[in-house]
Design a protein that fits this description.
single chain, alpha/beta, 7 helices
Length: about 230
């Protein structure tokens, strides 16, 4: 790497000289930073973990994704995917993480910005979608979430009372052939919303139309909880 040293020795003013020096310093700093990144990448490549096969490393990364059947949130959602931290470790880990669609298929109170990114990175993987806070669901927008119904295998929603009828309409507009668990909890007056009809998921949540409706669904929880 060669640092730039040429500076116009006959500047128009002192201000111009300062600006030229600043520009060259910024250029040299950027070059040094790139050199440091390259050296760190080479050093990281020598680590034992970097020599693991792609499949094994991807399986290790999946340990950060909670199992939906035993998942229980204990902290307020941040709106950022937990797997994001993996992509900030090194270039190799980021490449492996981005090539592992199932790593991005666990959507837990994700913000609208990250939801679009996770839907893209998860590709065609079956989704686990959890929005256990009405505020998170409202900020994200249930339309973007429920447009993915054909891909969702587990769906937990806790909407605000004002969104319930709109969500029920959306749930009736698309089939859910992969859906296995559905939890729908509303905090508020149970008289504000209409009952859930048999048109939900277009009357099917099966992989083939020859099976009975909801054959894949083994857990269904629908609750209207009135605040004290």
């Amino acid at each position: 790497m060669t640092l730039s040293t040429s500076v116009d020795i006959i500047p128009r003013s002192k201000t111009t000289l300062v600006e030229q020096c600043g520009a060259h310093t910024n250029k040299d700093t950027a070059a040094l930073s790139e050199s440091v990144r390259t050296l760190r990448f080479r050093r990281n490549a020598l680590a034992c973990v970097s020599r693991l096969p792609f499949e094994i490393l991807a399986n290790i990364f999946m340990c950060i994704v909670p199992k939906e059947e035993c998942y229980m949130r204990t902290t307020k959602p941040s709106g950022v995917p937990a797997c994001l931290a993996i992509t900030h470790v090194c270039r190799h880990w980021r490449q492996v993480a981005l090539q592992c669609p199932t790593l991005w298929a666990f959507i837990d109170c994700i913000s609208s910005q990250w939801l679009a990114i996770m839907l893209e990175r998860s590709k065609k993987s079956a989704l686990v979608v959890i929005y256990s806070y009405p505020d998170s669901l409202q900020k994200c927008g249930y339309e973007q979430i429920l447009s993915q119904l054909p891909r969702i295998k587990s769906l937990q929603l806790c909407p605000s009372p004002s969104d319930v009828n709109g969500i029920l309409d959306y749930l009736s507009s698309l089939p859910a052939p992969l859906l296995q668990t559905f939890e729908f909890v509303v905090m508020g007056d149970p008289t504000f919303a209409r009952p859930i009809s048999d048109t939900i998921f277009q009357g099917q949540s099966t992989q083939t139309s020859e099976r009975p409706a909801f054959a894949m669904l083994f857990q269904l929880d629908i609750m209207y909880l009135q605040r004290a």
